[in-house]
Write a structure and sequence with these properties.
By secondary structure, the chain is an alpha/beta fold. The protein has 19 helices and eleven strands. The strands form two sheets. A nine-stranded mixed β-sheet has the order 1-2-3-5-4-6-7-8-9, sandwiched between helices. Helix 3 runs parallel beside helix 16 and helix 10 crosses helix 13. The longest helix has 16 residues. It starts with 8 loop residues before the first strand and ends in an 8-residue tail after the last helix.
Length: 458
């Protein structure tokens, strides 16, 4: 249950230039009486349009971290309030952190030990967190703010939350925009094959780019590098912030997951071939900079919340045979799964399974990146047959989350304005990968200009 929200106070979030209205919604169904942080970007014009709620990913990311997305969604914000709710255990709603996500060169055992201590400090709270709770809280916020119906934008794990909201509160929903789709029945933590396909796509696009092609066979060099880590001949990698030599080599699981994370962002992916080439020559600084950027980006995740949801709703339904099949012939292997499997050994929350989804007829806009290393387009194409009214945008060469790229913001606004109309998606063809890094100071722009039509990476 929830009490009436506090009167909205003017506040600001990093990444957004206009004032917001911030509320604190007191929850009465927990001993700690937590509060939900609710942030509203008021519509520029007063209209009767349903508000758009932004649902963050992770699980463990705070919706307030999505404030920079408001820039892309300004056309939507002209007519609609945009609402961000930090789910329990994230952001301004009592972030459940474990203070181990900033450590570099940590073994899986050290990581698991840190998680164990974090869990034992708050076992009841850890077991209480779930997607069902989050969706129920969103429904309470909708009622408390007096919204008759809402539209939802979800990114990554936020798409799972949005799809569950659609199942449990269909009468409260108008439209859905789902970017990087994690369907309810899809086991998205089996990510090795998706990451491998994204890397191979990068390899093909590099081979078609004159500047990148001159780097040579960087994929073979990457495989050799990972083989050296497998054999115990790991190289010391400098600290990405100070440039000083690390006290011990980065763990293999960290290196592999760092490479996977680079594939999320086309800008980082465009630098990966050069970084690998330099590492093969003994210069690990570029690779350290890239991997460090993503390791420290984990600061935005509330690790306790992440494991409460992942262990109860995702890891418990993955079999050893599925892990073996997914990891086979991939650069990632079991590195991502092992992180969560070992962590969940120390995070004994109850299983919280989902029911099979029922048909729904809300208009849905699906957005996928062709080179997404965790939620590839096939998830949206093969696992959402129960959605009766959907359109799917696929960004060629796109990574994870594409709502801010090219003409996608305009298409989102067009969809929300007229959800029953077929979108003209021809503008997506103009969205291209960023130029590949070819030297210490960036891309070879002259080589980019040499590309013939149709040869450039898309």
């Amino acid at each position: 249950m929830a009490e009436a929200p506090s009167v909205g106070e003017t506040c600001y979030l990093d990444g957004w230039h206009r004032p917001l209205l911030c509320h604190r919604l007191a929850l009465t169904d927990a001993p700690e009486r937590p509060e939900l942080a609710v942030m509203v970007a008021p519509a520029v014009s007063e209209t009767d349009e349903e508000p758009l709620y932004l649902l963050a990913g992770g699980p463990g990311q705070a919706a307030s971290d999505l404030a920079p997305l408001l820039q892309a969604l300004e056309p939507v914000n002209r007519q609609r309030d945009i609402v961000m709710v930090d789910r329990r255990g994230s952001g301004r709603s009592g972030a459940f952190r474990c203070d181990i996500d900033e450590q570099l060169s940590i073994s899986l055992e050290e990581f698991a030990q840190g998680l164990a201590g974090c869990y034992l400090a708050r076992p009841e709270f850890a077991d209480s967190l779930s997607s069902r709770q989050t969706v129920d809280d969103l429904e309470m916020v909708r009622r408390a703010l007096g919204h008759e119906r809402v539209a939802l934008w979800g990114g990554s794990w936020g798409t799972r939350t949005a799809l569950l909201y659609q199942q449990w509160y269909p009468e409260s929903l108008s439209e859905l925009v789902l970017d990087a789709v994690a369907p309810i029945e899809t086991k998205v933590f089996l990510t090795a094959q998706a990451a491998e396909k994204a890397l191979r796509k990068l390899e093909r696009d590099c081979s078609r780019d004159p500047a990148c092609a001159r780097l040579g066979d960087w994929r073979e060099q990457l495989d050799q590098l990972l083989a050296e880590w497998d054999s115990g001949a790991a190289h010391p990698i400098p600290d990405p912030l100070t440039g000083q030599p690390a006290a011990k080599p980065m763990a293999r699981w960290e290196l592999a997951n760092g490479i996977r994370a680079m594939l999320y962002d086309p800008v980082a992916a465009a630098q990966l071939p050069f970084a690998v080439t330099q590492a093969s020559r003994g210069n690990f600084a570029p690779l350290a900079g890239l991997s460090g950027a993503f390791i420290h980006a984990a600061d935005s995740m509330a690790m306790g919340l992440t494991f409460s949801v992942a262990c109860a709703e995702e890891l418990n339904r993955i079999t050893a045979a599925e892990v073996a099949a997914d990891s086979r012939d991939s650069f990632l292997g079991t590195a991502f799964y092992d992180l969560f499997r070992r962590g969940c050994d120390e995070w004994p929350v109850r299983e919280k399974p989902y029911r099979e989804p029922a048909p729904r007829d809300h208009p849905v806009l699906l957005i996928s990146g062709e080179a997404d290393p965790i939620t590839p387009p096939r998830y949206a194409e093969e696992a959402l047959d129960y959605l009766e009214d959907k359109q799917h945008l696929v960004v060629a060469g796109g990574g994870h989350i594409n709502s801010r790229r090219g003409c996608i913001p305009r298409l989102i606004a067009d969809f929300l304005a007229e959800p029953s109309s077929k979108l003209d998606v021809s503008c997506i063809d103009s969205i291209r990968r960023p130029p590949f890094m070819a030297a210490e100071f960036g891309p070879d722009l002259g080589a980019v200009g040499e590309m013939k039509p149709g040869e450039g990476a898309q």
